Amino acid sequence: PRSGREVFELNPSSNLVRLDADRIGGRVEFEHLPTGPWIVRRWWIRMPVVGTRQRGLSNFMRESYIKTIEEDGGWVSEVRTLNGEVIERAGVATLTGSVWNLRTAAPLPRARIVLVGTGYETYTDQRGEFRFDDMPDGTYRISYGDEILDALGYVPPLVEVTVALDEPQAVTMVIPSVQQLWSDLCPSSDPGRGGIIAGFIRDSVSMDPIAGVQVLAYRERGALSATAETITNWAGYFRMCDLPGGQAWTLDVRRADEFGVTVRSTEVTLAVGDILRADVAIPSRTP
Q: Which of 33, 153, 170, 285 sits CB 3.0–4.6 Å from 12 for a disulfide?
C-alpha cells in the first residue's frame, strides 16, 4: 500500500463557526479481486483538529478554534499471494498542469503543488509547469500556493481533478489578481483610497504564533487613540483593511500574560492600493 499525510492550516480568518461541513469527512473505496476477496482499494479521511486559546486580553476566558485540518489517505498499488505472485496491479495515470500568476500575466515558478492525502508533492518549474507520473487513477484534490499568498494568510480553494488510465489529464490553476485578492481579503474596502496591513505575531523565543494579541495602528507616534485595532486569530494572524495610504503608520502589538502586558512597536509605510505584510516578534514577560 501507499499512503500520504498532509497537515495544512485553514485560511487564518476561518474559525470553528465558519467551518463548512463539506470541508471535512472521508471516503472508502472497495474492489472485488478476480480471486474472490474484497479489498479496500483507496481511502482518505479529512478531519479538523480543535484547540483552545485565550480570548482577547483576558487570562480567564477561553474559546475553541480550528487549529489545523489533517488529511490522511492511501491506496493499494499491488496485491500478491503469500507466495509472491501478483494477482492485481493498479493501473497508473499521469497528471500535468501549470500555474499562472494573474498579477503579472506570467507563469508562476516554484509554486508548491500537493495532492492532498497522498505522498505526491512537487514544485512548478521555470515555465510554471508540473507533472505527476505513475499515480493511480481516481479523483484528487490539489492544494497550491506561493510565498506571497502564504505571507498574506490566503489559502486558495482546493482544485479537484479526475485522472484515468492511459488518458493524461492536464489542469491549469491561477493565482488571484490583485483585485481578486483584495476583494477576498477586504471585500468592503476601496483599493483606490487606502491599503491593507497584514502579518503574523510570534513569540520572539519559540517563534510560535500567538493568538489573542492586540494590534493597534496609529497615524502618528504618540497619538492618544488608534485609527484601527484588531486581535490576532489562532494562527497569530492579523489584518487591517482600508487604512489611508501614502503615509507612515506605527503598529503597537500588546501581549498580555500572567506577568503583565508587553508592548512592541514597529513603523511601516503604506502606499495607496498596497497590501503590506508586517510581522512582529514579541517576548513574553517573566517575573
A: 153
